C-alpha cells in the first residue's frame, strides 16, 4: 500500500513538473523590461492560444501514456511480444493523428499554430517515458516473482533438509525397545521411550522455528546418542559430549548438527570393537559456535566412498542458512575429525 501511494505521488509530480517545463518553455510570446526606481524587472508575456494548445497536446500524451503503459504491462511472456509492440505503434500513431486533427479543427485563419516539432516532440517524449516506465515495471515484477519463487524453492529445500532423521535409526531404536520388553528391562525401557519421545517431538515441533536455543540442539544430540548406544554392549562405545562456555542466549538452526553425529556412529563404531566418539561444543566466544566431532574410522569403512553420508546435504543447508558465516573443516585419516565454526551474530 505504501509503495502504491509513493508510485502515485511520483506520477503526479512527474506530470506537474514536466507540464510546467513544457508550457513555460514554449509559450513565451515576448518579454518586457520595466524600470522601477532604477531597477529592471522582466515581465514574460505568454500566448494563451499556445498555452491552450500545449496543454491539449499534453492531455493527448497523458491518455496515450497510460494506454501504452497498460499495453507494456501485459508483456509477461515472449508469446505476446509482437502484439504488444504492434499495439504500442498503433497508440503512438493514434496520438499523432488526434494531435493533427485537433490542431486543424482549432486553428482559424488568424490563429497561431503550434509548431509541429513541439507537438510531435511532446508526444514522442511522453511515449518514450511510458515505454521506459512500463518496461521497468515489468522487470521489477518479474524480479519479485523470481525472488518469490527462489524463496519458496529454498524453503522447500530447507524443510526437506531439516527432516532427514534417517528411518533406519527409528527402526533400530524401536527394535532395541522391543528387546527390552522381552528382557523385562522396565526402568531402562521407560527412560529410552522417554528419550525417543523427546527426540521425535523436537523433530516434529521445534524444527518449525527458524532458530532454537543451543541447549535444545544439545539435548537433541544427547537423546539421539543415548538411543544409538542401545545397539551396543555396555562399554563398547564411549560417547563423550563436552560443552564449554555458557549456552544462554545462543540460537542455532534446528537439527543442523545431527548428520555429523549420525555419521560418527555409522562409521566410527563396529560391533565387538571398543570405540570412542567425541562431540564438543565450544561456546566460549561471543556470537560464535565451534562444534567438533572426532571418531575412529574402522577398517571396514576406510576405503568406502560413501563415508560422510549426509555431509553434502549439510553443506548445502549451511550455505542456505549461514552463507558467509560458517567454516567447515574435515580431516580424514584413520580418524575422522570435523570442526564447524558458525557466526551467530
Describe this structure in words.
The protein is an alpha+beta fold and 345 residues long. The protein is 58% helix and 19% strand. It has a 5-stranded mixed sheet with strand order 4-6-7-9-8, with helices on one face. The protein has a two-stranded antiparallel ribbon with strand order 1-2. Strands 3-5 form a two-stranded antiparallel sheet. Helix 1 packs antiparallel against helix 2. It starts with a helix and ends with a strand. 23% of the residues are buried.
Structural class: alpha+beta
Helical proportion, percent range: 55-70%
The ordered H/E elements are HEEHHHHHEHEEHEEHHEE
Q: Could you say what the CATH architecture of the largest domain is?
A: 2-Layer Sandwich
Q: What fold name stands as the CATH topology of the largest domain? A: Heat Shock Protein 90
Q: Average pLDDT across residues?
A: 81
Unreliable parts: 305-309
The geometry reads as: elongated
Q: How big is the Rg?
A: 37 Å
Total individual domains = 2
The order of strands across the largest sheet is 4-6-7-9-8
Top-tier CATH class of the largest domain: Alpha Beta
Counting DSSP H or I runs of 4 or more residues, the number of helices is 10
CATH superfamily of the largest domain: Histidine kinase-like ATPase, C-terminal domain
Largest sheet: 5 strands, mixed
Amino acid at each position: 500500500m505504501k509503495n502504491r501511494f509513493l508510485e502515485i505521488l511520483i506520477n503526479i509530480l512527474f506530470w506537474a513538473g514536466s507540464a510546467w517545463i513544457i508550457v513555460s518553455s514554449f509559450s513565451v510570446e515576448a518579454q518586457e523590461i520595466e524600470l522601477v526606481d532604477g531597477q529592471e524587472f522582466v515581465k514574460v508575456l505568454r500566448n494563451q492560444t499556445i498555452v491552450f494548445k500545449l496543454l491539449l497536446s499534453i492531455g493527448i500524451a497523458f491518455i496515450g501514456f497510460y494506454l501504452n503503459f497498460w499495453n507494456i504491462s501485459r508483456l509477461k511472456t515472449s508469446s505476446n511480444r509482437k502484439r504488444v509492440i504492434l499495439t504500442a505503434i498503433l497508440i503512438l500513431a493514434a496520438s499523432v493523428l488526434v494531435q493533427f486533427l485537433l490542431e486543424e479543427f482549432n486553428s482559424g485563419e488568424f490563429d497561431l499554430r503550434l509548431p509541429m516539432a513541439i507537438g510531435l516532440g511532446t508526444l514522442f517524449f511522453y511515449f518514450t517515458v511510458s515505454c521506459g516506465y512500463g518496461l521497468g515495471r515489468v522487470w521489477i515484477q518479474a524480479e519479485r516473482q523470481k525472488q518469490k519463487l527462489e524463496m519458496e524453492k529454498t524453503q522447500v529445500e530447507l524443510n526437506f533438509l531439516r527432516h532427514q532423521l534417517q528411518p533406519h535409526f527409528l527402526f533400530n531404536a524401536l527394535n532395541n525397545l522391543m528387546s527390552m520388553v522381552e528382557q523385562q528391562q522396565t526402568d531402562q525401557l521407560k527412560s529410552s521411550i522417554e528419550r525417543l519421545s523427546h527426540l521425535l517431538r523436537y523433530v516434529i515441533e521445534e524444527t518449525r522455528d527458524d532458530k532454537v536455543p543451543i541447549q535444545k540442539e544439545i539435548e537433541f544430540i544427547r537423546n539421539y546418542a543415548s538411543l544409538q548406544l542401545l545397539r551396543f554392549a555396555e562399554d563398547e562405545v564411549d560417547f563423550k559430549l563436552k560443552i564449554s562456555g555458557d549456552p544462554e542466549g545462543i540460537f542455532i538452526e534446528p537439527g543442523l548438527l545431527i548428520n555429523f553425529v549420525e555419521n560418527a556412529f555409522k562409521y566410527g563404531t563396529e560391533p565387538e570393537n571398543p570405540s570412542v566418539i567425541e562431540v564438543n561444543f565450544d561456546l566460549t566466544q561471543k556470537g560464535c559456535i565451534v562444534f567438533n566431532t572426532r571418531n575412529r574410522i574402522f577398517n571396514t569403512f576406510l576405503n568406502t566412498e560413501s563415508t560422510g553420508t549426509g555431509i553434502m546435504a549439510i553443506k548445502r543447508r549451511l550455505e542456505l542458512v549461514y552463507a558467509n558465516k560458517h567454516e567447515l573443516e574435515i580431516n580424514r585419516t584413520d580418524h575422522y575429525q570435523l570442526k564447524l565454526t558458525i557466526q551467530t551474530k
